[in-house]
Design brief:
It contains 9 helices and 9 strands. A hairpin with a 2-residue loop joins strand 8 and strand 9. The longest helix is centred in the middle third of the chain and has 14 residues.
Length: about 240
């Protein structure tokens, strides 16, 4: 059992309306301040798990807890934005305002901050992600890496204790990828990162959870599990180059 768990699932399952079972009895905990990776092939259930944890998808109460809140309980779900932030695969899904500053300030405003407080929080978040001078720009005029950092700033402005990051390095060039890894390394709080970038896992996450077919197949030290060629092969993954003998 993880000491002081901030994320907890217990026999978490999810079946879509078409009958497809995306999650099947997933149980794990993630501790306060821990950075863990969630890996697995396409269709493993990683994004569905995130959507359940942040309350976007409804489910059975008692199967998940995020910062002490049950995402399946309507009253508790309303409080989740104060506790958990999600950065999705495509930053364009999260950027919609006329300027970057407006976009990043939107979350704090929704949490009840005054306009001045929201702008201050947005400015701090943009500075944290290296976009201090981008507040007046149009979001869709940013580069791919800048848009990803702007989306992350929108989450950080709400000061969540838990970050869920879905494929954070997708479509980034090598420089943008390195910059994002350094940024994530310095961020406080609890982080669960769903990714196919196994080198990122080795750089950031001491622990890895392997999800396949909606089930948790393995959970343990990242360097140990990712070096296990049989385990990786069974679950549609490959041993990272730096771990190959």
């Amino acid at each position: 059992m993880t000491p002081h768990p901030v994320l907890r699932t217990h026999q978490l399952s999810h079946t879509y309306a078409d009958g497809r079972r995306a999650l099947d009895g997933v149980t794990f905990t993630v501790g306060d301040g821990e950075c863990a990776a969630l890996v697995g092939p396409n269709g493993a259930g990683k994004t569905t798990l995130f959507l359940r944890l942040c309350g976007v998808l409804s489910g059975k109460p008692g199967q998940a807890s995020v910062g002490g809140l049950d995402p399946a309980d309507p009253a508790q779900r309303k409080k989740l934005p104060e506790t958990v932030g999600v950065v999705f695969q495509n930053p364009d899904d999260q950027l919609f305002s006329p300027t970057v500053l407006d976009d990043v300030a939107f979350g704090p405003l929704n949490l009840g901050a005054t306009a001045d407080e929201a702008r201050a929080a947005a400015g701090d978040a943009l500075k944290a992600v290296g976009l201090a001078d981008a507040g007046g720009r149009v979001p869709f005029h940013l580069s791919g890496g800048e848009r990803r950092r702007a989306a992350l700033a929108g989450v950080l402005a709400m000061r969540p204790a838990v970050l869920l990051l879905d494929e954070p390095t997708m479509f980034l060039d090598p420089r943008g990828r390195r910059e994002l890894i350094e940024l994530l390394r310095d961020l406080p709080g609890t982080k669960l990162i769903a990714t196919h970038d196994l080198d990122l896992v080795l750089d950031l996450c001491p622990r890895v959870l392997v999800l396949d077919g909606g089930r948790l197949a393995a959970d343990g030290p990242a360097a140990e599990l990712l070096a296990d060629a049989d385990l990786m092969g069974r679950h549609g993954l490959e041993v990272p180059y730096r771990l190959r003998g």
